[in-house]
Each structure stands twice: as C-alpha cells, then as structure tokens.
Specification:
Elements lengths: L4 E4 L7 E9 L3 H7 L3 H7 L17 E2 L8 E7 L4 E8 L5 E4 L6 H4 L13 E11 L2 E14 L2 E13 L11 E4 L13 H7 L7 E5 L8 E5 L7 E9 L2 E2 L2 E5 L1 E4 L2 E4 L4 E5 L6 E4 H11 L2 E3 L2 E4 L10 E5 L2 E5 L1 H4 E4 L3 E4 L1 E4 L4 E3 L1 H6 E6 L4 E7 L1
Parallel strand pairs: 3-7, 5-10, 6-9, 18-27, 19-26
Antiparallel strand pairs: 1-2, 2-4, 2-12, 4-5, 4-8, 6-10, 7-8, 8-9, 11-12, 11-28, 13-29, 14-15, 15-18, 16-17, 16-22, 19-27, 20-21, 21-25, 22-23, 24-25, 28-29
Function: Shows particularly broad specificity; although bonds involving phenylalanine and leucine are preferred, many others are also cleaved to some extent.
Protein name: pepsin A
EC number: 3.4.23.1
Length: about 375
C-alpha cells in the first residue's frame, strides 16, 4: 500500500497537500461475530459514547468511545529511525497516542508498541496522560518526537505512550488514535498534530478533508492542506461551526417522508470520523427508527433485509440545505445478525454524524474559516 501522495507548490516546497490513504479493514464487531464472541463482548463492553457527555472532563483527561464498528485506519510513523503504527484519524478527539513497550496489558500485546529508547529524537515530556473509556481507561505518559504523516515530518510533536489499556482495546484493529479536533479538547493541553502542521507551514491551506469508501477496502483518504475534486461532485456547502472544540454544527431538523422525526427546533451535532454510526438522544433515535420501519433487538435497530430497497431516506436539514441518506447508506448487513440500521442512542443531547454520514458526504474541516464543508461523495 502507498503511504502517501504529497503535492507541493513550486514556490513554497515547505507547503504541501498531503494525502494519507486509509485502509478499510474488518471492524472489531465483524471479527467477533465471525468467532461467535459478539454477544459476549457486547455484554461486557456496551457501546457508550461517554466522551460527549461532559465537556468539563477534558480539563484533565481525554474521553474516547469504545466503538466496535470502526473500520478505517491509516499509517503514521514516530521516531528516528521511524516506527510505524496504524491509527484512527479521529475528528472527535485531539490527542495522538499509541501503545508503548512499557504496556503489559493484553490490549497492547497484539498491537505495535513504541520503544522510546530506539529513537534518537525522543524526549520525555514529564507528564502523565489518562484517557477514560465507557468501560475502562488508558493510562500512560507523554513525550515529544518526530511524527511522519503522509511522508511529511512533523517535528517535536507531543504524543501519549500507553502503559495500560482497557481490555476491549485488544479487539480494536488500530494501534492508536490521531486526534484532529481543536486544541481546547486536548488532554494535558497537548498541541494536536494538525496544529503543528499549520504552525510549521507543512500544509498549503489550513484545512483537511476526509473521503471514506462505501465498500472498497482501498480508496479512502485523508487530505491535509486542501480538497481532492476527484472525491466529490457538485457544490460544497459551507457550514459555520457553532463551537470550536469539536467540529460542531447546528442541525435544523431530521425528516423522513417529509415529516420531522427528530431534532425538532434544532440541535447540535459533531462531524466525527471516530464514530461509525449516527448517534443521538434516545427519544429521537427511537423516533427515527420507527419512521424507517426498524425495531429494537439486542441493542440494535434492526430491519428485514428484504425491505431495504423500499425503506425511506433520512434527511438532515443543515444550514438551509438538505443532506439525504438513502436506506442503502444507513443499513448494514451482517452475515450472522441480519440487517441493522446505523442508529445508536446516547444519554447526551449532542448528536454525532459518524462514518455513515461521511461516506455519503465528503467532509472538509477548515481551521482557517472555522467551518465544515460537505459535498456529495463520488
């Protein structure tokens, strides 16, 4: 697999458009279903997007969700000489962290681990780091080193090195997380990777964009420093942020068959590559599920696979424009568990527009304008 495509301006070789390919692999859920372990796992580690419940928690620790459906990973390297890791490029968090050789948890045993003693450029930051999960935590410490993203070195980047990890992480495919949200969300006041890319003049524009393939294992891409016209069609709809911590926007309403079924009067939502589904308040998610003909079973909103072609679209009305999700985009079919919608409820009023939404709409994250751009994905 190619690690990156780098396009640099002739007049300023230091400022580039950097493209990092993402692999679409099996999610933890798919692997567990194949092994007949999904029900046991779901009982032990129920999905809980706790990181979105209380922003006061971010003063001392970063919150992460235990989303077993995440399937898109990219490769970065850290240190001199470089040590490689797969990470989730996560617009719902701001810290970079990976497992370290000092971690003896089962979750670290089956992932790549960073060895600081093998890097001539590593410096210990002298700070501890704690990341809370819905069902456990990751603890470790912070250090500085060169992080290579898409072939471009980001110097003196702070990152977390885990010393213990929650048991469910053993089932996750990626080694770690590369957060792409705002600095205000970062634990320990760590500077996010993209902020250093901007400060070090490594990108052509202060924006990045995400393209996620629907079915293909290859083709997904994060583009730093610009947009890729090959990945979208039509016009880009620019939506101002309502808060600069997450990539947070205002949704006016959600309709099915022309009727408002959720978010009546408006609601807040984040565009989040680190969540696989559409997540919202329980009452609204139940209303949406009923409207499309789904019913609750074993924690999922399930449908008859034979009815998918006749199911209605969901329409998210945002900043005066309609963003339509046909049933083919929000229904997933499992070999073992039939068809389910990508609708999940939480105890928070903050909605999450996850990978289901981003697969349909090429998503652009502009730090220069503090806006999200959405365009129909190719």
């Amino acid at each position: 697999m190619k690690w990156a495509i780098v396009l640099c301006a002739v007049v300023a070789l230091s400022e580039c458009i950097i493209q990092v390919p993402l692999i679409k692999g099996k999610s933890a859920r798919e692997s567990l279903e194949e092994q007949g372990l999904w029900n046991e796992y779901r009982g032990k580690f129920p999905f809980n997007p706790t990181r979105f419940d209380d922003q006061n928690l971010y003063v001392s620790s970063e919150q992460m969700t235990n989303d077993a459906d995440l399937a898109y990973f990219g490769v970065i390297s850290i240190g001199t000489p470089p040590q490689s890791f797969t990470v989730i490029f996560d617009t719902g968090s701001s810290n970079l962290w990976i497992p370290s050789v000092y971690c003896s948890s089962a979750a670290c045993a089956n992932h790549n681990r960073f060895n600081p003693s093998l890097s001539s450029t590593f410096k210990n930051a002298g700070k501890s780091l704690s990341i809370q999960y819905g069902t456990g935590s990751m603890t470790g410490f912070e250090g500085f080193d060169t992080v290579v993203v898409g072939g471009i070195p980001v110097k003196n980047q702070i990152f977390g090195l885990s010393q213990s990890e929650a048991p469910f992480m053993a089932h996750m495919k990626a080694d770690g997380i590369l957060g792409l949200a705002y600095p205000g969300l970062a634990a320990s006041q760590a500077t996010p990777v993209f902020d250093n890319m901007m400060t070090q003049h490594l990108v052509n524009q202060d924006m990045f964009s995400v393209y996620l393939t629907r079915n293909s294992a290859v083709g997904s891409m994060v583009t730093f420093g610009g947009v890729d016209p090959n990945h979208y069609q039509g016009q880009i709809a620019w939506i101002p942020l309502s808060s600069q911590m997450y990539w947070q926007i205002t949704v006016d309403s959600v309709t099915v068959n022309g009727q408002i079924v959720a978010c009546n009067g408006g609601c807040q939502a984040i565009v989040d590559t680190g969540t696989s589904n559409i997540v919202g308040p329980q009452a609204d998610i139940s209303s949406m599920a009923r409207a499309v003909g789904a019913h609750s079973a074993n924690g999922d909103n399930v449908v008859n696979c034979n009815n998918v072609n006749n199911m209605p679209a969901m329409v998210f009305h945002i900043h005066g424009q309609a963003f339509t999700l046909p049933a083919s985009t929000y229904v997933r079919q499992s070999t073992y568990y039939g068809c389910r919608t990508g609708l999940q409820s939480s105890n928070s009023d903050l909605w999450i527009l996850g990978d289901i939404f981003i697969r349909q709409y090429y998503s652009i994250f502009s730090r220069a304008q503090n806006m999200v751009g959405l365009a129909l994905a190719r």
